[in-house]
Amino acid sequence: MTGSSRTPIYHAVGRLATDTLVVIHPRHGVRIAPIDLARERMLLQLRKDLERFVLRLAVERATTTHRTQIMHVARTMRSHRDAMTMAEFNAFDSRIDKLILQAAAEPFLEHTLRPLHTIFRRIGWIHHLHIGAEQSVLRSIDAHLAILDAVATRHIDQAVAASDELIEFVEAMFDQIERDIDPTVLDCTIEPIMG
Questions:
Q1: Which of 80, 91, 159, 164 could tie 55 with a disulfide, CB 3.0–4.6 Å?
Q2: What is the C-alpha separation between 57 and 105, in angstroms, rounded?
Q3: Looking at the structure, do residues 91 and 14 belong to the same domain, yes or no?
Q4: pLDDT in tens for each of the 195 residues of the chain?
Q5: What is the value of pTM for the model shown?
Q6: Helix axes 134-152, 37-61, angle to 10 degrees
Q7: Does 163 reside within a domain?
């Protein structure tokens, strides 16, 4: 159906399962994993600590090439800030994650943070799609710009503070999701209430 062979699809599904985004039922298929808000809120604390560590390394180890790339991404984001869609932001977000990890120069961290980034990108997508606050996207963009600026100018404390602010913003998303979003959005096995 997709025009791809089984091998890349098998690997992609395996990676999604490793990232806890899908559940594989051998010989029965694949199901999107339900979103467990309590678990993901707890994992947010892990991400906070890991992000602080990664940003410290990135500020200390970033080469001129890394800083040039980071400043270029920041300039491009600023020029598109007011008209950026969620899909465009997610592309920037993914690129920023890779750049910061490259600057940190510790390959183990990529394997540790990649699944966490994926989980929280999904939370952000659900929040923006269903709550739909344009200001929310702008706040995400601004928080990422603060992180980029701090890393590019080698200010560890500012980078950590900007990261903490981003994590606080994500944590606030959980409260809104719990309060305002139909649970069927979070778990496809829940039957919707017809009214």
A1: 159
A2: 8
A3: no
A4: 677 888 888 888 888 888 888 888 888 888 888 889 999 999 999 999 999 999 999 999 999 999 999 999 999 999 999 999 888 998 999 999 999 999 999 999 988 898 899 899 889 888 888 887 666 788 899 999 999 999 999 999 999 999 999 999 999 999 999 999 888 888 877 877 765
A5: 0.85
A6: 30
A7: yes
